[in-house]
Give the backbone structure.
Amino acid sequence: MRGAGYACASSLQLKPTVPSIIAINIVVVALAVFIHYEFLYRMTTLLPRMRLAHRFRIVLGVFGSLCAHAVEVWLFAFAYYGMLAWGGFGAFEGQFDGSLLDCAYFSFTTFTTLGFGDIHPLDGIRYLTGIESLTGLILITWTASFLYLEMQRYWRSDATVGQ
């Protein structure tokens, strides 16, 4: 619906309170951080065991990181979708039709802090939007640090092998 707020009508109408909004934010962020940690930990343990050239390990690390970020974005998308379905947490206005794909699109633009501005959150759901941007910034930075350290490790070992 263009220009109008969209929230799903549900038989399970809740009157969200500040503690419930904070609880949802904490749970979603904690899950995103846990997912990210597990992806990075698994890559740290699996990449060195692979019998591949170091450059391919780095490429796999990049693809693994992108997968981690996509899973985290979809986690936030499901949270938005659930908050809309439960009702009372707010709405989105702009070019938003209430679909899960629109929630995912909004989540991708929020997580990456791209923010096109074609969809706007209203009321309580705005807080998850803000915390998603902060979480995305931190997790993307964490990934950049991880990949930098991995490249340093492999390039350092390549340099010592060549000597």
About this structure: The mean pLDDT is 89.
